[in-house]
Amino acid sequence: MAGSATSPRKPRRPALLVALLVPALGHFGLVIAGVAGSSAAKKWDILDWSINGVVLTYLLLAVALWVKGSSAAAKIALLAYTGIVVLALCELTLAMMAPAWPPYRVPWPPKLQRVSTAADTMPGIEGEIRFTTNALGLRGPDFGKQEQWDARILCVGGSTTECLYVTDEKSWPWLLQNQLAEKTGKRVFVGNAGRSGHIAAHHAYLLNNYEFAGRFEYVVVLCGLNDLGMLMKGDTDKRMARIHETTLVHPSGYDLKPIYYHQAQLGMRADQILRRLVPDKGTAEQDEQGRWYTDVRKKRAEALSKNKIAVPHPGLADGLNRYESALLDIIAVCRKRGQKLTMCTQPAMWRDGLTDEQQAMLWAATDDGAYTPRALQQMLDAYNDRLKEVCARENVAVVDLDAIVAKDETAFYDDCHFNTPGCAQVAAALADHLAPRMK
């Protein structure tokens, strides 16, 4: 009786295996190189998981088919290379005819529009909060053509310049524009590049690398608070290492990772689609209404009960020296361009004699405890004094906002952020300083 014959397995061809492996291993090699080049790249999002999942599935399937000697392995290889060619042609076409975004980076995503209603956690802030940005990636009105303005001012700083919870027209840079136009009779544009959490080193990087920074004749810098905050939190090395990544953002509204597909036109569009389909469920530190203040004020109260710190940070001297170095970088950038620089001291509500209600408005705390208002004032005074010393030595104009702005709820809704009346105080002081210099 003749046994049933089985067809012999086709020989496994090494050249075919190489052809199958090259696309996947080349992809993963580029991914590893991108991840190694940036700490931000290690935080994967939906696009990363989707693309790498598809490539890994292809790799496992292709190798399994090759091991079995299946003729389908050759078809998989042909399909992979055909897909690569098609994607390359699509990428080239988009890059030449319809690029998704310009190649430069900006302080804010252009044409951003946010509308929210203020929570009851911020004295002096109420009603609708509008936050809009223009085509230059700045908070402020449309810039249009440069020639339509007689004077252009760029405001740089952290959250006290950003004015997140003050509606557009009542934020101090916007008020400054209107007041200078009235005082000088000129067409004045003021752009707001302030970003929450930015330290003086961020400001120097922004002025040096922002595509449109050179269009501004005047620069106003308000800084010091976040440098002090960095000292208290003890995350100096971490922040400094990421200055180049965290200062400017991609115009798409998210930071491009150095992984190759995030830089591609197809990748940018795929990311936008995926983000709409699968929204990011992570919570931001600050919500648009300001409700988060309830929680952080409670955390300060708990931190004070755990450890009330009544003396300045032991690393204050080193922090001041680092701050001075960044200030000198800011001055050097503006001086090189011939821009007229004005630097401002940072006001805050911190002082002796705060009422219980005012104390309850504060939220500054660290992992180890919380500083008393007096200790906070002493440290901020040191940063403000260092700024004034550097500017005096370098012949740079200073507006001492710390000596002008009221240290209570008529100017602040928390430790240091200006409410609507506070923004008016800042704008008035800067307008009085700048107007005579613009005639």
Poorly predicted sequence stretches spanning 5 or more consecutive residues: 1-5, 280-285
Mean pLDDT metric: 91
CATH architecture grouping of the largest domain: 3-Layer(aba) Sandwich
Number of helices: 17
The percent range for strand residues is 5-15%
Q: What topology does this entry show?
A:
Blueprint: H1 14-36, H2 46-68, H3 72-97, E1 113-117, E2 128-132, E3 151-157, H4 159-162, H5 172-184, E4 188-192, H6 200-209, E5 218-222, H7 225-233, H8 236-241, H9 243-246, H10 260-263, H11 265-277, H12 293-306, E6 308-309, H13 316-337, E7 340-344, H14 356-361, E8 370-371, H15 373-394, E9 397-399, H16 401-404, H17 420-434
Helix pairs in contact: 1-2, 1-3, 2-3, 5-17, 6-13, 13-15
Task: Describe this protein's structure.
By secondary structure, the protein is an alpha/beta fold. Helix content is 50%, strand content 9%. The protein folds into two domains: 14-97, no CATH class; 113-252 and 288-438, 3-Layer(aba) Sandwich (Rossmann fold). It is built from 17 helices and nine strands. The strands form three sheets. Strands 4-3-5-7-9 form a five-stranded parallel sheet, sandwiched between helices. Strands 1-2 form a two-stranded antiparallel sheet. It has a two-stranded parallel sheet with strand order 6-8. The radius of gyration is 27 Å and the shape is elongated.
